[in-house]
């Protein structure tokens, strides 16, 4: 009896942290970090816009990385144009990949898992966002007027009208 036969007979447990799960954990941590950054700099529209763009790019890279890891695991060859589809179509390319690589029934199950992950990720990010807002609330007054631009700060008041 060979070593491979013994392993097959005993039944090995699947690896807990596969490449796909690591990517999902990294996406969750990335999403939490971007949410905290956006809420931390809520009054700065430049940083908020930058984090929005970075988040979109990060999600696209994560979708492509997950699809590539899944295709290696399933021995499914991706088209050489698939990365362009992910860039252009985003999540729709992921749905297409799930149906194409798994078939209709398992594709529906894969899409359901994808939707549940996205909803869960947004819930966790929202909770961290709320905690961030609570943490910065002593330093942040949403009713305060933003400070005027520098060129208007040292302007003397206009002269009073003659009586």
Spell out the key features of this protein.
single chain; about 160 residues; mainly alpha; 7 helices
Describe the overall structure.
This protein is mainly alpha-helical and 163 residues long. The chain has one domain. The chain has 7 helices and no strands. The chain is elongated. The protein starts with a helix and ends in a 10-residue tail after the last helix. The relative contact order is 0.10. The mean pLDDT is 81.
Give a short overview:
By secondary structure, the protein is mostly helical. It contains seven helices and no strands.
Set out the fold topology.
Elements: H1 3-10, H2 19-40, H3 45-74, H4 82-89, H5 91-102, H6 104-136, H7 150-153
Number of helices: 7
Structural class: mainly alpha
Oligomer: single chain
Gap between N and C termini: 111 Å
Main pleated sheet: none
The overall average pLDDT, rounded, is 81
User: Unreliable runs, pLDDT <50, ≥5 residues?
Assistant: none
The fraction of residues assigned to DSSP E strands is: under 5%
State the share of residues found in helices, binned by percent: over 70%
What spatial form do the alpha-carbon principal axes imply?
elongated
Compute the number of strand runs.
0
Gyration radius from CA atoms, angstroms = 25 Å
Number of domains: 1
Strand/helix succession = HHHHHHH
């Amino acid at each position: 009896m060979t070593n491979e036969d013994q392993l097959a007979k005993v039944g090995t447990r699947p690896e807990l942290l596969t490449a796909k799960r690591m990517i999902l954990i990294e996406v969750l941590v990335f999403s939490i970090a971007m949410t905290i950054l956006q809420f931390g700099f809520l009054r700065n529209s430049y940083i908020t816009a930058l984090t929005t763009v970075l988040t979109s790019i990060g999600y696209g890279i994560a979708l492509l990385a997950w699809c590539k890891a899944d295709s290696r695991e399933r021995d499914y060859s991706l088209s050489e144009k698939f990365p362009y589809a992910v860039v252009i179509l985003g999540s729709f390319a992921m749905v297409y990949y799930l149906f194409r690589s798994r078939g209709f029934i398992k594709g529906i199950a894969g899409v359901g898992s994808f939707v549940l992950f996205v909803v869960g990720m947004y819930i966790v990010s929202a909770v961290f966002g709320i905690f961030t807002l609570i943490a910065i609330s002593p330093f942040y007054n949403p009713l305060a007027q933003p400070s005027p631009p520098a060129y208007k700060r040292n302007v003397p008041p206009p002269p009073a009208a003659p009586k």
